Amino acid sequence: MTQNNRSNNANWRDFQWLKQFMPRGLYGRAALILLAPIITLQLVVSVVFIQRHFNRITVQMTESVVAEIALLEGEVNTAMSQEIAVEQARRIAAPLSMRVTLPADPVATQVRLMDFTGPRVLRTMQAGLPGLLGVDLESDRERVTLSLPTQFGVMQVDLPRQRVSATNPHQLLVLMVVTGFLMTLIAYLFLRNQLRPIRRLARAAEAFGKGQVVPYRLAGATEVRAAGKAFLDMRSRIDRQIEQRTLMLSGVSHDLRTPLTRLKLGLSMVEDDAREDLERDVDDMERLVDRFLGFAQAEALEDAPESVDPIALVHHLVENAQRAGMTVALGELANPGERPLRRASLERALENLLGNATRYGSQARFSLVTGRGDLRFVIEDDGPGIAPEDREEALKPFARLDKSRNQNKGSGVGLGLAIANDIARGHGGHLRLGESADLGGLKVELVLPL
Questions:
Q1: CA 68 – CA 92 distance, rounded (Å)
Q2: Disulfide engineering: 398 pairs with which of 25, 160, 204, 414, CB 3.0-4.6 Å?
Q3: Residue 210 to residues 72, 281, 342: CA-CA distances in angstroms?
Q4: Whole-model pTM?
Q5: Is a pLDDT exceeding 90 seen at residue 425?
Q6: Whether 354 contacts 326, CB under 8 Å
Q7: What percent of the chain has pLDDT over 90?
Q8: Where is pLDDT greater, at 132 or 56?
Q9: What share of residues in the chain are helix, strand, coil (percent, to 5)?
């Protein structure tokens, strides 16, 4: 059983190279499914019908004509004189729709390149008439001219082409092609109507993945309507969950501000020796509340997309970081041109990443790279980094990886990467963690589709 499975897998791998030639879009694949059977059917009918049926008819008709010409040749060769031979030949040829010329010049053998039945006519005549001098199938498409040796010289016989082969075999091909084209066009129109609701569903799902809500109504076949209804239910459920999370965390953060304010007022009356430490704790608590509130609003991206120059954005963020005392250097800067981005939310995500890089390392580097269909904001540092097995966990909210990052360097609550990841997903992208090749610390890539 295992050997059979391995054999099947090996056979499947042999055909993997076909994937690069197959269409990737739904329209292309549907067209392939539609056209492949029609073209195959036409080729099979062409080969079987024309090559077999027409050729068989041609051979039978040509053999009948060969017998008549052989009779005509025999009458001429047994005649007592040339005049008698010509008279007997014309008497026999007239009812057979033939014209006889005696004596005459021999004709050369000629067959048109696109003559489907011509080669078969020629071979049949050569086999039935051993003394055949030549057959002309090219000079006049409606006639066949051949020459034979007789005792009175070369005899030329001219007869209609329709007597040796079926007329206009190409008409079948034309009829098949025209009919196939019309049926393909009709099928494509019906297919387009069926694919349009699927494309609308795909666009709505793609837009929702980028944080946009576009109108979508149910349409199409039953299965497409079922998928569309499931998408609408999912979108509503996610919207409710996001709204509930935002309201909950916003409410908690708002409610915590009141006791924090009272604590600050109370600390103002405490003796100076203990007040400094308590005020530091209150400040830390206030920062935590602000982070909670920021995370609650991470997916409530109210800023609309605008045309942004990524290079100018990188320079702006690096200058701000340097003015704030951070050691941030510029790396490679690709030029993708202006892109539609949510500038405010993207700045917030990148500022979080730069803050993390300088908090856990002594220096950071900010680069802008373009890949295959994506734009990547790359931030690297020389800190301790994050172990590969912990990187997925690091993107979750409130994750604190004490083994990977020195939490004593800041009062973080594990929301920086989660907020940046949420903002990246709101743009239809994602956050990718790795290791810096030269700095040795964490490498964070905010990947956005182009």
A1: 9
A2: 414
A3: 88, 38, 11
A4: 0.47
A5: no
A6: yes
A7: 13
A8: 132
A9: 60, 15, 25
| Cβ-defined contacts of 125-129 (< 8 Å, 24+) | 125/62, 125/66, 128/62, 128/63, 128/66, 128/67, 128/70, 129/66, 129/69, 129/70, 129/73
Q: Kindly tell me if the per-residue pLDDT of 251 is higher than 80.
A: no
8-state DSSP, 271:
-
State the maximum Cα–Cα separation within the chain, in Å, rounded to a whole number: 153
**In degrees rounded to 5, what are phi and psi of residue 158?**
-125, 130
Strands 99-101 and 134-136 come out as unpaired
Residues 6 or more apart in contact with residue 94 via CB below 8 angstroms: none
Instruction: Give the 3-state secondary structure of residue 121.
Output: helix
Residue 161 in contact with residue 141, Cβ under 8 Å? yes
**Rounded to whole angstroms, how far apart are CA atoms 419 and 64?**
90
Reported as type and span, the H/E element at residue 148 is strand 143-150
Q: Is the dihedral of CA 421, 426, 432, 438 positive or negative?
A: negative
Helix (H, G, I), strand (E, B) or coil at 6: helix
Q: How high does pLDDT run on average in the chain? A: 79
Contact 24, 32 (CB under 8 A): no
SS (H, E, C) 229-255: HHHHHHHHHHHHHHHHHHHHHHHHHHH
Considering 138-152, 176-190, 291-305, the range whose residues carry the highest mean pLDDT is 138-152
The DSSP code sequence of 357-426 is HHHHSS-EEEEEEE-SSEEEEEEEESS----GGGHHHHTSTT---TTTS-GGGS---S-HHHHHHHHHHH
Torsion sign across C-alpha atoms 61, 65, 66, 71: positive
Q: Are 443 and 320 in contact (CB under 8 A)?
A: no
Return the C-alpha torsion angle 198, 201, 207, 210, nearest 10. -90
Q: How large is the angle between the packed helices 416-426 and 343-360, nearest 10 degrees?
A: 150
Cα distance between the two ends of the chain:
47
Across residues 144-152, what is the average pLDDT? 92
Specify the 3-state DSSP secondary structure of 307. strand
